[in-house]
Amino acid sequence: MSVAVLGAGAFGTALAITIARGGTPVTLWARSATHAEEMANTRQNSRRLPGVELPENVTVTAEIGAMSANTLLLAIPMQQIAGFLAKNGHRFASGAIVACCKGVDLETGLGPTATISAACPGAVSAILTGPSFAIDIARGLPTALTLACRDEAAARRLQSTLSTETLRLYRTTDTTGAELGGALKNVIAIACGVTIGAGLGESARAAVMTRGFAEMQRLARQLGAQPETLSGLSGFGDLALTCTSEKSRNFSFGLALGRAETFDAGKTVEGAATARAVARLARQNVAEMPITSVVASVLENRITIREAVEALLSRPLKEE
Ligand SMILES: NC(=O)c1ccc[n+]([C@@H]2O[C@H](COP(=O)([O-])OP(=O)(O)OC[C@H]3O[C@@H](n4cnc5c(N)ncnc54)[C@H](O)[C@@H]3O)[C@@H](O)[C@H]2O)c1
Ligand SMILES: O=P(O)(O)OC[C@H](O)CO
């Protein structure tokens, strides 16, 4: 079994480290030759995971042509996947490609596995998602994630290849549910960050999380997901983690927005593009998504945070 990770950001590096610690050799690809050389020399990714050593059986490269493995983990941000695969997808025509990202493509409205399948129709596409901070995985702290793949046999194989002593994978064939849970929770986490940042209180945050979960389930059901997937690690589990921790970039981004502070534009905040992609679906009457819609409107500077709160509080009273 060979594993390769495309993308030497925080998550890709953490996955490479934990899988390699389990004894499987891993090739880790970085798009920058300087970054790859730096990691190979210092045996750590000081840009994203400082202080965590790369095991000996992790080989770092910037040569995309050197990336051949029967299991490829694609750990680059959602909005970059279609472009990356349009350029490089021909190299990965067969085998399994596991998306390690969370979001909805702003241009196509597709999720990670459909984006992979569109570019690499001969490959098996899967997604690895759920509650985990890269640093926790890299430190070997216990973590549980969802591995979703429509092909049951491939799901079992990937589950066993990618599970480690500290990273426990649960499998499902419901890719729609798994990827919608991961994508939508980021938007709700931004809303929760705004809530705390703007001083609206922890009770309000609990309301946003709960009603946010209701709209996540509503859209997922409408798009054919299984309800139990949304209640699992990739949905409720990741929502709970991301909405309550300042280690989350989506939550911290919302926090900064609520406090009218600036936020480091170099950080990956998947929920910002996802909010806009999903708000479009909501406008097409796919499902009622009030929190996601106001997050998108705030991010597009169409309404203020005060107006967003007023819009949510003035909605007609209804049954829970
Ligand atoms: N960091 C975490 O704790 C964590 C946990 C679970 C899931 N994720 C998910 O993993 C995905 C990646 O996040 P991350 O934390 O690793 O982000 P990151 O910002 O740390 O790394 C992103 C990596 O992608 C590379 N990249 C960006 N654009 C690229 C392109 N066009 N072509 C090739 N490479 C490109 C960057 O060079 C960088 O190495 C996100 O979807 C995120 O939601 C992250
Ligand atoms: O830092 P965030 O907000 O991208 O969250 C990281 C993971 O998605 C949490 O599961």
TrEMBL record:
Enzyme Commission code: 1.1.1.94
GO cellular component term of the entry, any: cytosol
Identification of the protein by name: Glycerol-3-phosphate dehydrogenase [NAD(P)+]
Keyword check for Acetylation: no
Top-level enzyme category: oxidoreductase
Domain named Glycerol-3-phosphate dehydrogenase NAD-dependent C-terminal: residues: 174-310
Keyword Lipid metabolism listed: yes
Leader sequence residues: none
Organism per entry: Pseudoruegeria aquimaris
Organism taxonomic ancestry: Bacteria, Pseudomonadati, Pseudomonadota, Alphaproteobacteria, Rhodobacterales
Classification via Gene3D superfamilies: N-(1-d-carboxylethyl)-l-norvaline Dehydrogenase, domain 2, NAD(P)-binding Rossmann-like Domain
Family: Belongs to the NAD-dependent glycerol-3-phosphate dehydrogenase family.
